[in-house]
Amino acid sequence: MSSQATTAGPRRLAWERRQRAFRRSWSEYRRDREGLIGLVVLVVFVLVALLAPLIADVDDLRAVNTTDNPVWAPPSDFAPLGTDSLGRPVYDQLVYGSRISLLVGVAATLIAIVIGTVVGVLAGFFGGWLDSVLARLSEWFLVIPFIPLAIVLAAILGPSLRNIIVVIGITSWPTTALLIRAQVLSVKQRLYVDRSRALGASGGHVMGRHILPNVMPLVIANATLTVPIAILSETTLAFLGLGDPLQVSWGQMLDEAFSAGALGREAWWWYLPPGLCVIAVVLAFTLIGRALEGILDPRLRERRG
Question: Reduced to 3 states, what is the DSSP secondary structure of residue 89?
Fold first, then answer.
């Protein structure tokens, strides 16, 4: 019983400490008006994506099911957002397109963050030749223009949702890696890390108990800033015809609208809503990321103080 109590004590203290840190961070976040606006906008889009089967008709995404609908119908003739050149309701495409755009943004960001964190931690912690090799690799990816590289990879792998996620993920990690590397170089010089090593702690113990917990806030803040880049990348690739033709996304809508001549026909109801949704989601993630960065990044927190 005594050993269990001894083990439970530190765990309970650690849990209470995390709760206090979360409440303190949430209190600081609520004071950031722009961050709250971004969070509200993001929650709205997430709810739309999750509730898509309840608020839109998936059958209307296929032209064979919309032959009775008028084509190029403005919102005044076909509520709420009109139809495209095939008679498909723009509203249903917009709702289901939110699922694909958010999925690609989050999934590609997870890949980029995992790769960037692993590379940054290994390079900063071990140093030496490994640091040199990984740093040069990161710089090589940064030197190559992102969009041409992504276009080449997407064209080679083929137009599919999985390939788009992989392409964006493996081309978006260098910035994260360099940020994490710099943070690890700073953390590993602190006294408690030296004390842990002096007491005989292994490299894995130091990395798991001291390095990673101190870089995770920066990882989280950087992730929220990477998602909008991934969403814009998916929109760009889809607009260039490299997206998955079987999946409806906001970028795919823009590509089809441009190809069908929506600009010439002044069919604003087809291309304007997806464009505004992309802007709104990107802005929401950016506002959230800036707010979290100011709270979780110790350097920015010190400047505020």
Answer: strand
The answer to whether 38 and 284 have CB atoms below 8 angstroms apart is yes
One-letter amino acid at 112 equals: A
Distance CA 171, CA 63 (A): 35
The whole-angstrom separation of Cα 118 and Cα 126 is: 12
Other Cβ atoms closer than 10 A to 52: 18
CA dist 64 and 87 (Å) reads: 9
The CA distances from residue 36 to 16, 29, 108, in Å, are: 26, 7, 24
Pull the structure tokens for residue 164. Answer: 């788009």
pLDDT digits (tens, 9 = 90+) for 38-74: 999 999 999 999 999 999 988 888 888 888 889 999 9
pTM above 0.90, yes or no: no
What is the C-alpha separation between 255 and 23, in angstroms, rounded?
Answer: 44
pLDDT tens digits along 236-245: 888 887 777 7
What structural domains does the chain harbor?
32-304 (1.10.3720.10)
